């Protein structure tokens, strides 16, 4: 009777052990097998080989039929690119509309500041520097302090004027993420406070004050002449019962000034014209 170690080591799926003697070591499963099971394993290997041959043939046929499908590849890639393009366009249009509105708002704010500071600098020039200059011009001598002070004022006004000419809105682009930063810079020179000696009456000369008073009197007198006052008096026995017209005279102070500074213009301006009326005139 053969020993257990010399039996075939093949077992069926249900666990039944082969009772035949082993013959040789099978290279497929590395077991000691009998001739029967050795041939069976050889058939399994042959079946695997046949399947491998089929796969190789199929692969070879694929190589023979393989062509570069450039059209379909391009269309697929173009579709992806078009999708990306549409997305970026939507994003750019959105950013563009937002930045347009932002520029409108900042421009309006900058325009308001511009008008404010322009009026401020113009007031410094006309109501301060030019009046101071006129007063110095009427003096018999020029003091170095007045000259330096006016130069300093002019320099400050000019610096503010130069700043008003600048565009105070800057735009910075970031091409990596389509980001745009819009910054409105503040006015510095133009926003500086008024001069310490800013006073509408500080640099007025006596002649300017007299001219203003005279213009005011002329204006009042012209208004009185434009609508003559009619004063109706009761009838007197010796005079006709018609009403009497009283014409107001020019103020005495004004007449004296006009006589001292007689000009053709003033003579024409304050000439009393004759009034065609049957009413008696009392002056």
Blueprint (SSEs and pairs):
Blueprint: E1 24-25, E2 32-33, H1 35-65, H2 70-137, H3 144-164, E3 169-174, E4 179-184, H4 206-226, E5 245-246, H5 252-260, H6 264-269, E6 281-282
Parallel strand pairs: 5-6
Antiparallel strand pairs: 1-2, 3-4
Helix pairs in contact: 2-3
Describe the structure.
The protein is mainly alpha-helical and 283 residues long. The chain is built from six helices and six strands, in the order ββαααββαβααβ. The strands form three sheets. The protein has a two-stranded antiparallel sheet. It has a two-stranded antiparallel sheet with strand order 3-4. Strands 5-6 form a two-stranded parallel ribbon. A hairpin with a 4-residue loop joins strand 3 (169-174) and strand 4 (179-184). Helix 2 (70-137) runs antiparallel to helix 3 (144-164). It is rod-shaped. The model is unreliable at 227-235, 237-247 and 262-275 (pLDDT under 50).
Alpha plus pi helix count? 6
Unreliable stretches (pLDDT < 50, length at least 5) are 227-235, 237-247, 262-275
Q: Indicate the structural class.
A: mainly alpha
Q: End-to-end distance, in Å?
A: 176 Å
Largest sheet, in brief, is:
2 strands, antiparallel
Instruction: Please tell me the overall pLDDT.
Output: 74
- How much strand content do the residues show? 5-15%
The neighbouring-strand order within the major sheet is 1-2
| Order of SSEs | EEHHHEEHEHHE
Radius of gyration, taken over Cα atoms and rounded to an integer in Å: 57 Å
Work out the number of β strands.
Answer: 6
Helix content: 55-70%
Question: What is the overall silhouette?
Answer: rod-shaped
């Amino acid at each position: 009777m053969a020993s257990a170690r010399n039996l075939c080591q093949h077992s069926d799926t249900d666990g039944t052990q082969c009772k035949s003697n082993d013959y040789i070591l099978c290279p497929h499963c590395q077991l000691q097998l009998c001739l029967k099971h050795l041939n069976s394993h050889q058939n399994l290997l042959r079946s695997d080989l046949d399947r491998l041959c089929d796969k190789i043939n199929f692969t070879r046929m694929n190589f023979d039929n393989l062509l570069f499908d450039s059209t379909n590849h391009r269309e697929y890639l173009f579709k992806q690119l078009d999708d990306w393009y549409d997305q970026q366009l939507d994003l750019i249009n959105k950013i563009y509309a937002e930045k347009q509105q932002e520029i409108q708002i900042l421009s309006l704010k900058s325009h308001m500041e511009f008008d404010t500071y322009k009026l401020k600098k113009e007031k410094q020039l006309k109501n301060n520097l030019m009046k101071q200059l006129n007063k110095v011009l009427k003096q018999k001598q020029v003091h170095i302090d007045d000259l330096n002070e006016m130069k300093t004022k002019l320099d400050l006004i000019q610096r503010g004027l130069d700043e008003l000419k600048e565009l105070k809105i800057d735009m910075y682009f970031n091409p990596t993420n389509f980001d745009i930063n819009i910054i409105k810079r503040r006015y510095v020179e133009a926003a500086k406070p008024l001069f310490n000696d800013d006073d509408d009456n500080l640099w007025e000369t006596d002649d300017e004050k007299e001219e203003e008073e005279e213009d005011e009197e002329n204006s009042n007198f012209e208004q009185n002449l434009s609508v003559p006052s009619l004063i109706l008096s009761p009838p007197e026995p010796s005079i006709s019962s018609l009403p009497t017209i009283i014409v107001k005279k020019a103020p005495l102070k004004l007449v004296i000034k006009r006589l001292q500074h007689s000009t053709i213009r003033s003579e024409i301006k304050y000439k009393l014209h004759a009034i065609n009326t049957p009413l008696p005139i009392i002056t």
